[in-house]
């Protein structure tokens, strides 16, 4: 079982708002939901020497982490800051991915070990990459790090089953799974220590809320048999994606104060990845027929908007933003875009 970092399709066993808002950065330092749509300036973050790169998350300073091909064909994790992309190293193997970065610049993700015989979660801090280990298996990934140091993710045991974990002070804690399931994954946490993810028996995926020391709790989704919670903000708003009762149509959704809002899609299958404190959601969706994938931004107030419709025509000329993974409280977005069919990590910044 492997994580779900790039789910172009739903797997049998996982391994893993058009917004009315005025740009109020000048007076509040945040992107608020009011009446006007912003335009986003696109910055190409480059690569580590290879042809392609992709970004995952970013911190409030706009520092981005992700992965890039190197000149030798291996894949490296990076931190992009102030126009420079830095390779943060490896646990010894040829593939490393940065999945999240906190305010202090600490990065978590996964890296192959020497010989590429296993993939382990890591914490990169102060220039040093630390192997977070597994539950005895050959796979783990850290998907989120909070500013207080709480890391969440999932790891396999000796039998190959995947368990959601919380990692703090060099200790990996098994968060368990829902009754009747055999695997679980966690993706995000908030300052209250609430952790979100999914539990599965290999066929149905059930939205799950975790917390250290307590039993996991199932959270109702959109009515289908596939449901994943992927983000939670400090207000307790939860975002996820899942199928409708037809078990074919997949939408993004937000749960606020116990009320679920279906955010829909851009015509195809939707995946929601991150939510900021204002309830603004980013992710990506197939267009009708799912032959083409575009990034979106969404809110409960106005549903979903294709981010490509909001690009500054100068900086965004020729680019197609295919995925959006992170959004800060002031509206900066980390994502991946293509130019001439070549994918690069990008940073989108709202223009005043």
Task: Kindly report the average pLDDT value.
Answer: 91
Number of strands: 30
What distance lies between the first and last C-alpha atoms, to the nearest angstrom? 45 Å
Biggest sheet, open or closed, and with what strands and sense? 4 strands, antiparallel
* Proportion of residues in β-strands: over 45%
Class by SSE composition: mainly beta
- Helicity, in percent? under 10%
Uncertain residue ranges: 1-29
Oligomer: single chain
Shape: globular
Helical region count? Answer: 1
- Gyration radius, rounded: 19 Å
Strand order of the largest sheet: 3-30-29-28
Topology, element by element:
Layout: E1 23-24, H1 25-28, E2 30-31, E3 40-44, E4 49-58, E5 64-70, E6 75-81, E7 84-87, E8 92-101, E9 107-113, E10 119-125, E11 128-133, E12 136-145, E13 151-157, E14 162-168, E15 171-174, E16 183-189, E17 195-200, E18 205-211, E19 214-218, E20 227-232, E21 238-243, E22 250-256, E23 259-264, E24 267-275, E25 281-287, E26 293-299, E27 303-306, E28 319-327, E29 333-339, E30 342-350
Antiparallel strand pairs: 1-2, 3-30, 4-5, 5-6, 6-7, 8-9, 9-10, 10-11, 12-13, 13-14, 14-15, 16-17, 17-18, 18-19, 20-21, 21-22, 22-23, 24-25, 25-26, 26-27, 28-29, 29-30
């Amino acid at each position: 079982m492997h994580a779900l970092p790039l789910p172009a399709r739903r797997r049998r066993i996982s391994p893993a708002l058009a917004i009315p808002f005025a740009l109020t950065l000048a007076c509040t330092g945040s992107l608020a939901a009011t009446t006007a749509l912003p335009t986003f300036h696109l910055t190409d973050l480059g690569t580590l020497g290879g042809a392609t790169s992709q970004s995952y998350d970013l911190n409030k300073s706009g520092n981005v982490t992700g992965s890039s091909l190197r000149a030798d064909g291996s894949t490296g994790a990076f931190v992009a800051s102030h126009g420079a992309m830095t390779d943060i190293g490896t646990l010894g193997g040829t593939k490393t991915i940065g999945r999240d970065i906190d305010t202090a610049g600490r990065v978590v993700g996964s890296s192959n070990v020497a010989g590429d015989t296993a993939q382990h979660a890591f914490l990169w801090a102060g220039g040093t990459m630390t192997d977070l280990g597994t539950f005895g298996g050959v796979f783990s990934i850290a998907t989120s790090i909070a500013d207080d140091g709480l890391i969440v993710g999932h790891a396999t045991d000796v039998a190959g089953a995947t368990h959601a974990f919380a990692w703090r002070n060099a200790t990996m804690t098994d968060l368990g799974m829902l009754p009747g399931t055999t695997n679980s994954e966690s993706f995000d946490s908030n300052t209250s220590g609430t952790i979100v993810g999914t539990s599965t028996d290999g066929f149905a995926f059930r939205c799950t809320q975790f917390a250290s020391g307590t039993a996991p709790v199932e959270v109702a989704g959109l009515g289908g048999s596939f449901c994943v919670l992927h983000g939670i903000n400090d207000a307790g708003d939860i975002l996820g994606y899942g199928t409708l009762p037809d078990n074919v149509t997949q939408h993004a959704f937000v749960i606020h104060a116990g009320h679920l809002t279906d955010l829909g899609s851009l015509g195809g299958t939707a995946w929601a990845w991150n939510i900021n404190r204002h309830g603004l959601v980013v992710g990506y969706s197939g267009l009708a027929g799912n032959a083409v994938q575009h990034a979106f931004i969404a809110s409960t107030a106005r549903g979903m908007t294709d981010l490509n419709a909001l690009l500054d025509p100068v900086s965004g000329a020729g680019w197609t933003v295919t995925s959006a993974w992170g959004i800060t409280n002031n509206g900066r977005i980390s994502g991946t875009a293509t130019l001439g069919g070549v994918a690069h990590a990008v940073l989108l910044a709202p223009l005043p």
